[in-house]
């Protein structure tokens, strides 16, 4: 039907070999075109959740997990990162992955070109440079010499060139100045609005990210303790996030 979610996760549990259950019976639904913000204290399980959805947790690390993870009606579990990229899921990782020793332009060129997996709009290199003009300015600079914000832009550009339907972003704001975070979040809004990409993001800078999101999911000790519309986020939500009390 028309309101089928792009991604639906039901009862996802992830337990590491050391016995830590980092994600606990999580339900998550991302309708096509939506932007979901995942928040939680350090160690709440945010990164583990994203990694489980992007194939970057190897299956041997998952002791228990649900059968019902669904992305476009197919199971996500035990699929390789390559398979998930081909299916249209792209991860912008927490610690930016760019190739040092290659220029910014070369970093964009080495993204495997794929036939768009039915994405709304085929994203070209020119589209990326128009969205992120700073990358054109530093095109000939070694990626290792880019600022933190520029590296993050490059990681976003690389992710877009894989033609994602679902862009999964882990801590865009990590170590960046507030003005740069605001700028990057505006780009995320554009990626969603103009490129038609569904967004799932983990972000500590909740207030800055709220305008970009339509839902907020709060994790605590791996479990979802709140799932609300972004415009229902209140000071009490913030207090619960920081203090761990009633949501
Ligand atoms: P942060 O904001 O600090 O990145 P997070 O919400 O992303 O935290 P995770 O990194 O997913 O949380 O960690 C959730 C729990 O799983 C923590 O208790 C952490 O110590 C544990 N954990 C994470 N990675 C591993 C691993 N590879 N092996 C064992 N335990 C792990």
Automatic annotation (TrEMBL):
Identify the residues that the record assigns to the ABC transporter domain, covering every copy.
Answer: 7-246
Its subcellular locations are: Cell membrane
Q: Per its UniProt entry, which superkingdom is the organism in?
A: Bacteria
Q: Which family does it belong to?
A: Belongs to the ABC transporter superfamily.
- This protein is called Branched-chain amino acid transport system permease protein
Taxonomic path: Bacteria, Bacillati, Actinomycetota, Thermoleophilia, Solirubrobacterales
Part of the intact protein present: 366 to 612 of 614
């Amino acid at each position: 039907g028309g309101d089928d979610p792009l991604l639906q996760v039901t009862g996802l549990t992830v337990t590491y070999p050391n016995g830590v259950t980092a994600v606990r019976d999580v339900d998550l639904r991302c309708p096509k075109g939506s932007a979901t913000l995942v928040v939680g204290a350090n160690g709440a399980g945010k990164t583990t959740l994203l990694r489980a959805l992007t194939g970057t947790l190897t299956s041997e690390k998952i002791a228990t997990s649900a059968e019902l993870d669904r992305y476009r009606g197919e199971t996500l579990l035990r699929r390789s990162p390559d398979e998930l990229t081909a299916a249209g899921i792209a991860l912008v990782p927490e610690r930016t992955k760019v190739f040092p020793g290659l220029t910014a332009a070369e970093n964009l060129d080495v993204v495997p070109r794929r036939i768009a997996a039915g994405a709304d709009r085929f994203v070209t290199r020119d589209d990326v440079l128009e969205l992120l003009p700073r990358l054109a300015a530093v095109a000939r600079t070694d990626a290792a010499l880019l600022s933190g914000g520029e590296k993050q832009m490059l990681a976003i550009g690389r992710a877009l060139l894989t033609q994602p339907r679902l862009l999964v972003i882990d801590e865009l704001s990590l170590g960046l100045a507030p003005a740069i975070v605001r700028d990057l979040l505006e780009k995320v809004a554009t990626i969603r609005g103009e490129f038609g990409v569904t967004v799932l993001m983990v972000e500590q800078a909740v207030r800055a990210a709220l305008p970009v999101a339509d839902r907020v999911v709060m994790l605590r000790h791996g479990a979802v303790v709140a799932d609300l519309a972004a415009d229902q986020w209140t000071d009490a939500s913030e207090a619960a996030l920081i203090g761990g009390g009633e949501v």
